Amino acid sequence: MADLGCTIAGIESINPFWLASAPPTDKYYNVVRAFEAGWGGVVWKTLGEDPPVVNVSSRYGVHHDTGRGVIGINNIELISDRPLEVNLKEIEQCRKEWPDRVIIGSMMAPIDEQAWKELAIKIANSGVHGIELNLGCPHGMCERGMGSAIGQVPEMVEQTTRWVREAVDIPVFTKLTPNITNILWPAEAAKQGGAHAVSLINTVNSIVSVDLDAMAPNPVVGGKGTHGGYCGSAVKPIALNMVAEIARAQETQGIDISAIGGIETWKDAAEFIALGANALQVCTAAMLYGFRIVDDMIDGLSAFMDQKGYKSMEDFRGMAVKNTVDWNELNMNFDTKAFINPDKCIECGRCHIACEDTSHQAIEFAVAEDGKRSFTVINEECVGCNLCAHVCPVPDCIEMQPVEDDKPYVTWPEHPLNPMKAAAE
Amino acid sequence: MPDGLEKGPPSCGLSAEDIEAGFGDLHKPLNSIKAIAAAEHCIYCYDAPCVQACPTSIDIPTFIHQIRTGNTDGAARTILSENIMGGTCARACPTEVLCEQACVRNHGEEDPVEIGLLQRFATDHLMAAGGAHPFERGADSGKTIAVVGAGPAGLACAHRLSMLGHSVKVYEAKAKPGGLNEYGLAAYKMVDDFAQKEVEFLLEIGGIEILYNRPIGPDLALSDLLKSHDAVFVGVGLGGTNKLGLDKEDLNGVEDAIDFIERLRQADDKSTVAVGNDVVVIGGGNTAIDAAVQSKKLGAENVTLVYRRGEDAMSATPYEVELARKNGVNVRLWAKPQSIKGDTHVKSMKFERTRMMNGKLAGTGDSFKVPADMVLKAIGQQLSLDALSGVEIAGGKIAAAADFSTSMKGVFAGGDCIRSGEDLTVQAVEDGKQAAHAIDTYLKGDANG
Ligand SMILES: Cc1cc2nc3c(=O)[nH]c(=O)nc-3n(C[C@H](O)[C@H](O)[C@H](O)COP(=O)(O)OP(=O)(O)OC[C@H]3O[C@@H](n4cnc5c(N)ncnc54)[C@H](O)[C@@H]3O)c2cc1C
Ligand SMILES: Cc1cc2nc3c(=O)[nH]c(=O)nc-3n(C[C@H](O)[C@H](O)[C@H](O)COP(=O)(O)O)c2cc1C
Ligand code: SF4
Ligand code: SF4
Ligand code: SF4
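Above: inputs. Below: predicted complex with iron/sulfur cluster.
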């Protein structure tokens, strides 16, 4: 069986699955249950200076699909609302009882050197393996000059990271906010500040839905609502891109990545690892299903690795990074066409109407005399957009088949129709 | 009640409660959780085959999508805009040979979308909410149309005529509206007096007056109606029944299945309905199945359904035949009635075995006897001609053109009394609806000309 052990920021973990700093890691009770369930590590719920924050009631909103499946949730909770001393004692206790599991202390403070350093030292003294800087909370804390208010200013990201590096001698993770124009700016700043790793993403600023009776955003707090942090399955694509950007950019290359955002299955995990993640953090999936979901994350990931012949995560980590390129590096001569397998087609017409109304009018719909409906791709019209294959309800019914030809690899900068190229010549 | 059938405690020992419970919903209605799950199974097909397979062309993908988005009353309006008796059809349509049979999900060796149950979910929701009637009467045209028969064809026609602004007078022979919805459909398809509730709902549009116990016939003929109305729609269904043509067909205990079903449907307490202990049902259609299953549910010990051909030739759907078997009905194929035995009350029946010979059904000479204290004849209904003087009849039905007009100018017809599609509620509704449009066109042409 494949070895799921991994190392991030110099910290060894029995598996890459950690719980992200959030309600699942709020206290001793949850963390022990998580370790019992098999999680490799936890990032403790973010700690701040005393007195602790006070939360409101009504805290989460949800984005359902029509079948009540959860696409994502958002929250308007703040950081830990329990006294610092209580948290630190519990961390110490957990560390003692679970020596093979990782505990990272998450923290935030106002933009003040002494505040950051004093808090970092106190947390380090509880025995944590490392410290994570929460520079991402996009609601509530940012109105107090913390969280994303810091994370959105690269200079402050660098500054706070440096303060913590100077204060303690354990690994430092800087947790980034996705609510920013270019993720490379804060990532590079974290690297400059001396971070051993970046953790990303924190939640995405959002209004998850509007209560049409209360006429207020959800979650409604006594008639009013506020924007909150969006997470879960829906944010995975955003996180994947940001992780890939950091993994492949020159400026940030080499920094370890603790990937977070919408990880629900072993497959999600494998995708993040393929894009360069050293380890993973999960919040929403655990909140929706409980800690037991880690079972299949572990089992599925090792089965996948066995099947592919990867002995350790390092065997495939980052393998998709070199194939993640700028648009300008894509081959303009590549051509692919939709192919409908008539044996699998159930004649629903979804491919036809999608292509007909919104794409390239490339799927012909005919009804035979016996009433049999047929859907046929018009090769000359098909641009290979994949839309039909995506909307088809039958798996593998529409296959995108690359056109075999001997055309050379030609990028847009080299392309004859590129006016900029003509100008340059 | 036929003579000689005492309503004692049936020998099978069903209590009154058992019997009542046996006549509960054949298909349990979906609750909202199941409805969403069922709706999620629908692919939202383009130019969906299910729509084409529904005789009333309900926009099925749209109404199911509306259920999915939580717009359940909108879903009901989508249904009712094509089929004002969508509630009854949701309960009574043989969906396994209509919409659900065409569902593309069948191709994937999956179960089809439960269209009928979803249709019921939506229409029940709207009717339970009880708000304003979802359709408006059109601006008054000043025209009055006589509708003969308050069955599905007549009422669907009346409703659509009202939407088009016409006034409608319905002449109904019986004391209650609904036609076979009220008197014929199996009790377990129409629980809680649904037929009457649906008619009440339908009439909320206004502009429709029903005159009960007013049969059209020698005293009040179609030609009379034409004098006092601008047009006439005939939706009289099939009032007559076919005879076996055997001696002793009038013995006590021998009756038409539809009379038995009507008695059953009209009984407030099902346990008071007399049924034999050895029931023989003759026929291979819907009516035969319904009569057999309902006899069983009333407590008959032995119910034997005898049909003269093979199962494939039965007009009942395979689902219905299976339903009969599940309910303990003994289905005997390839046998035709030969004689009825008994003095005043039927005692048994003799059947001759049959087979196909040179493409024709023929007796084999071999026969068998089935003990019977009740014989229910379900060998088809026929047009009753009482009301139809002046109208051309062809092949046992009113001769109607594609626009539902008959040989008599100004007289239109639809439902079971003409040859359109199958004799089904949903087809009667479609005929009524389309005939209303044809009448509207006719009246406009008339006004111009
Ligand atoms: C036992 C049985 C079970 C059935 N089960 C199903 C089923 O499960 N699903 C399904 O889809 N279909 C079923 N059908 C068929 C369905 O009931 C009919 O197709 C449908 O009712 C036809 O509607 P209609 O309006 O044409 O006629 P009817 O429903 O027969 O209505 C005719 C109306 O006209 C009235 N009338 C008749 N003569 C006169 C007159 N001279 N003057 C005034 N009024 C008159 C009658 O009293 C009646 O109200 C069943 C039929 C039977 C007999
Ligand atoms: C209710 C809730 C509270 C959270 N609190 C914190 C927090 O205190 N500190 C922090 O760094 N991130 C916090 N997060 C963000 C998560 O750690 C994580 O970055 C985010 O939810 C994305 O991962 P996911 O898609 O697996 O949930 C919180 C998330 C949720 C849902
Ligand atoms: S979407 Fe798929 S199943 Fe539906 S018609 Fe197209 S190819 Fe067939
Ligand atoms: S009316 Fe009948 S055939 Fe038409 S969709 Fe409804 S259940 Fe199906
Ligand atoms: S054919 Fe089936 S899946 Fe397609 S729209 Fe109709 S009910 Fe839905």
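The interface with chain B takes residues 66-68, 345-350, 352-353, 365, 371, 373, 393-394 of chain A (CB under 8 Å).
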